[in-house]
Amino acid sequence: MKAIIVGGGIGGLTTALMLHARGIQCQIFEAAPAIRELGVGVNVLPHAIRELAELGLLPALDQIGIRTRELIYATRQGQEIWREPRGMDAGYDVPQFSIHRGYLQSMLHRTVLERLGPDAVVTGQACTGYEQNEGAAIVHFADGCATRSASADIVIAADGIHSVIRRQMFPHEAGLKWNGVMMWRGATETEPFLDGRTMIVAGGFTYKLVLYPIARGTQPGKILNNWVVTYRPGADGAPAPKREDWSRRGTHEELMPHVEKFGVDVIDLPALVRATDTFFEYPMCDRDPLPWWTDGRVALIGDAAHPMYPVGSNGASQAIIDAHTLADCLARADHGRAGLAAYQALRLPATSEIVRLNRKGGPEGVIDEVERRAPDGCGDLDTVISFAEREAIVRGYAATAGFSTSQVNQARAS
After folding, report:
1. Which of 22, 152, 156, 410 has its CA 20 to 30 A from that of 247?
2. Beta strands at 70-74 and 223-231: parallel, antiparallel or unpaired
3. What stretches in the chain show pLDDT beneath 70?
4. Signal sequence: where (predicted)?
């Protein structure tokens, strides 16, 4: 069996490593002219790290990321709502990592070239569509004015939220769903806050702050801190901003009034944001779950299959789990089409539920609920929302998304 992977992001690169580990030939075609260290922070949860550990990548992850020790949910005013250990500090057999998306992608890229060979990734190839026949699937690419085609037994579309292959499969799909939230995301080197391994999510429905370290700094005693500030200026269900408005460079003049809404005192947030020379603005978008992901010899994976709101630290994690599941299904199948169908049967229902839960706030729904009940803050939190209610929101999401401690450790043991 031979596979073509369209897209050289985290999902596509992990898929290549998983297929190679099972003796399945593959080649990646990436639209960008080069694999570059773009983006800011992501969290990769233990259920996904388990899969990367299977590939022998834990030492490499320790070189480029931070093992997350603790998660704190707080109000916009800084009052603690929920605190829990994470990763191995929470009893998992594997860690949780906070990491720069670009560093992770670059590490996976290097590993693919080392294990699959220098021709494993072909850049500058923008997918324009696919076709298939009884014997193969054919993908068409454009590189400037030049065009080329490549064929294989199966095609795996890892080409992201704006997937060309998804659009061909579903030409009448409604499109991106915007929840009215704009995000500003950046990272800069500062002194560590708290223990240097803690993640904080503060705010509520209208304003939210996400703050966590993602790498050791280039200077002694410094750490690369990732921050996200969100504001909901639009109505849920309003038309999504045009694609050309994505990744717009943010300005301090526009952002600082929102930053000043927070009273989190573990770090000087205004100073952190002002020290970030370049940061970007994004709309928070997803897509409706699909009825199917496969078309004969072609299948969707990662954000091409199930783009979701970035809450609960699940976007990159679910793409990695997709890659592992897909590789296992293909290795067991008598035919590529049967393997793709088995993968879809396992992953589509699970990720569709996560998309729906993320639309309700995911585990961060606990801070939304506190803000709804006490928008101006409160004295005794338990009079506003009980511990049992808080636990039900946070723990319930973890179980549904497949990363409760027992789920991850049992899967690793099996």
Report:
1. 156
2. unpaired
3. 243-247, 401, 403-404, 411-414
4. none
Looking from the CA of 407 toward its CB, the CA atoms found within 13 Å total 14
Cβ-count burial 333-368 (b if 16+ within 10 Å, e if not):
beebbebbbbbbebbbebbbebbebbbebbbbbbbb
pLDDT score recorded for residue 39 = 81
Give the strands of the sheet with 41-44, arranged side by side: 41-44, 97-100, 66-67
Say what the pLDDT of residue 184 is.
95
Residue 190's pLDDT is 94
CA distances from 325 to 104, 216, 256, 321, 332 (A): 20, 32, 43, 6, 11
Residues 6+ apart with CB under 8 A from 406: none
Write the CB contacts of 414 (distance below 8 Å, at least 6 apart in sequence): none
Encoding tokens for residue 358?
């993320």
Please, are residues 26 and 4 in contact by the beta-carbon 8 Å criterion?
yes
pTM of the model: 0.93
Contacts of 337 (CB under 8 A, 6+ apart): 154, 294, 296, 297
Under a CB-based contact definition with an 8 Å cutoff, are residues 4 and 156 in contact? Answer: yes
Give residue-wise pLDDT tens across range 181-213: 999 999 999 999 999 999 999 999 899 999 999
